[in-house]
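agent> fetching stored inputs for the iron/sulfur cluster docking request
agent> found them:
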Amino acid sequence: MEIQVAAVGAENTNNKTMRELVERAIKYGFSHASLLDASTLTVRSEVRDMCRADKCQMYDKNWMCPPACNDLSDNASRVTEYKSGLIVQTTGILEDDFDYDSMMAANDRQQKLFASFRDELKAEYPKLLALGNGSCRICEACAYPDSPCRFPERAVSSMEAFGLVVSDVCTKNDLGYYYGPKTITYTGCFLLV
Ligand code: SF4
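agent> prediction call returned; pasting tokens
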């Protein structure tokens, strides 16, 4: 089960197109959306240390995850090519802290909405950089490491794999990250222009 709450930052910009994008993301089905000021993004090596700790058990198992994905210095340089974008979230409501089914349902919803919204935005913003949550799940089994990525144009790294601290990005863009007990929130972002 997901909850729809708010569009953040839409009222704080004079840029009509960007303001409309936040509202569009909410209408699309995301629980929360916010403008993203690219100058707030900091690529941090500590995030890669967390990936190496392999709590998600995806380290060295996917082309879009470390150590196979882009070098952090390339990522840091890449974000300087952008001024703004969009953060999108799906929040799921849990029966309790162990409600794995609802966690997976909210994760699936975020990944599906994120992929289809990305396809829409890509037609309008050719420079688009999409950063999702979790490892790339386009293929049932990733081709890593034996063969090249099967869909390099569609494959997506997570914000964490890119070197971003998700809570930090949300906070700096006036967006929540934790929506209370018995909720879980998945976050992704699009750098657009
Ligand atoms: S598109 Fe397929 S091969 Fe490429 S990173 Fe994603 S899961 Fe792996």
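agent> quick read of the result: The pocket of iron/sulfur cluster is lined by residues 62-64, 136, 138-139, 142-144, 149-151, 155 (CB under 6 Å).
agent> awaiting further instructions
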